[in-house]
Amino acid sequence: MTNKIKNSITYKILLSFILLSAFLTVITTAIITRMEYRNEIKKIQKELDNIERSFLPVIKQSLWEVNEDGIKISLNGLVLLPNIEYVEIKQNNRVIASAGVRQSKESISREFPLYYDSAGKKIHLGAVHISVGMKNIYANLYKRALINLSSHGLEILTVSIGMFLIVNFFVIRHLKTIADYFRHMELGGLSKHLILKGHPVFDENVDEVSQIVNAVNAMNAKIKKFITELETEIERRKQADIATCESEGKFKSLSQEFNALLNAIPDTLILLSPDMKVIWANQGAAAGLGKDLSELMGQSCYSLWHQRTAICAGCPSEKSFQSGEIENKTILSPDGRLWDLRAVPIKEAEGKVINVIEVGRDITEHRKLEEQFRQSQKMEAVGTLTGGVAHDFNNILTAIIGYGHILKMKLEQGSQLMTYTDQILASADRAAHLTQSLLAFSRKQVINPKPVNLNEITASVEKILLRIIGEDIDLRVITPPPSAPPLNLRGGWGELIVMADAGQIEQVLMNLAANARDAMPEGGTLTIETGIEELDMDFLKIHEYGKPGMYAVITVTDTGHGMDERTRQRVFEPFFTTKEVGKGTGLGLSMVYGIIKQHIGYINCYSEPGAGTTFRIYLPLIEKETEKAKAEEHIALSGGTETILLTEDEEEVRKLMKLVLEEAGYRVIEAVDGKEAIEKFRENKDRVNLLLLDVIMPKINGKGVYEEAKKIKPDVKALFSSGYPADFIHKKGILEEGLNFISKPASPHELLKRIREVLDK
Question: Cα(608)–Cα(424) distance, rounded to whole angstroms?
């Protein structure tokens, strides 16, 4: 019986009203008490302010006059005030007078400093400390709180009981009637209406209780209608089942076609259950995982992909089950392949994820191509930068080198200034070499490729390499003898004929030797070997570079400390170096890379920490037998008496060239740009023997001047010069047409030699 009362809504409502009444009473009393407390504090502060105005002047005067009786009277008067428990006067942290006794544990204290005005100066006399006791105040607040709690509690309780009686009369008693109606309701008695006393049936203008009654009666009518419709639906479905059996065959055929379509997709398709088990997979998944389809079913995805016993951290399929959204992630499989995984959720009508389709695509090759493309872009960006500064830098170096050589020629042998001049020229040569190194890496320097024997180049540079590497390193140069088999046999031969610039190939070998020397600080062995190799499709697929064909191979191997994988991948980057600051520019291997690429060749690096390093260079072989180079006849560096039209927009370079030419006996006509050059050529066409033209000039470039001059004098000779990189000169049509060209910076010796060669043709 007790449990029945406690479970009744009447009991719960009554209890709720009582608890609410008690809560509101406590809250109300607390708020009022808090407000009264604040008022009491304000009164105390106001009283202290009044004490400051009325008592402190008297106390200051008594202190100044040393009137002990006046001080005592004033202090005793303060203690007689309401709630003032204790008063004291301090001078220099010493109590000189006090009154009263501290009785309360809690009190409010205030200190009033005492200053006396004497002759316009404030003299500090001490301070008055006043303590106000809170004992009586707290007692009064407690009494008032009890009174408020009792009165407000009685008021709120009375109102609550009244509200309960009203709710019980208008609501609860009717709810009991409705509950009894549902308790005894049967399907056979659905036509019987629910009726409450004082509540009309099917009347729209009624209260909420009557609305419930009307809703119940309407529900009865709907249920009765639903039962009738259900019987009709059962009969209809019996007929539909017959039709469904007939369509199963068609569905089976369609399912087979759909599975065939999914199996034709090369991507991996896997249907996962919430416990990450494989429910279905296509043939692409079986092929990608290297397993049979039957081996995939029922297996967890993390065991298939990673051979794990638990779900992988950050698994996209697990995230898709949780978020209900498409999730993506790139993973690395144990066999080293890179996969792009996409998890697509399959949801119920309510939105719950019941399965996830995991789509996987092997992007290993795609990423490799992307990385190659990024590397190519990086190399091209560096090439553009170096080519942009090459022109201005080379013009500056032309002036430095030219004037340096002129100064050297005019100095006496043994002069101290001769030593300084040699240092200037050596520094300028190093700067010119640095520029050429940058241009070599960017594949923008001018090269002079000819059919050359790679074995001869390798053998000829051996002595130079010995000086580079030092005595503590054993150099081994291995080249086939001249009597080796001819080109159509594999394994190496005496003549490895390639189209190359011999000087550039020598530079490659010297740079690789210097790099090997630095990798063997305690000595070791450097081996340079030449041979032949055919690059077939298998080679191209494994190494991911090259074109099929026969290649001459230079292998440079050291026994140094080697490199880790990260360093090896960056070894050809410009300005990348593992050497200490000041011991390397980081351009040696990048220049090697640029030279080989410009020769339409390939270079790769093999290295492991502690196992040394091997560089392999591939240069395309040519079947044409090399022509023995004729010994160059010595060309006297004496000048001449011919007239040269010098056109150069850089003033310092123009002054230098004029000085060099005039010192050599030539007559010089100056022009600062292409337009002036054409005008002066017209005026002096019968006198001019040679046009010395800068390729790039304002108004009209060197090529344009040359073409206009040929219209006036068809047999006119020209020599072009430029500090711009090779690709820029190519665009101007200078090198393609075989015109005479000299690169900046050039020494006076080189300039005079080249001019004499052109004039004597």
Answer: 42
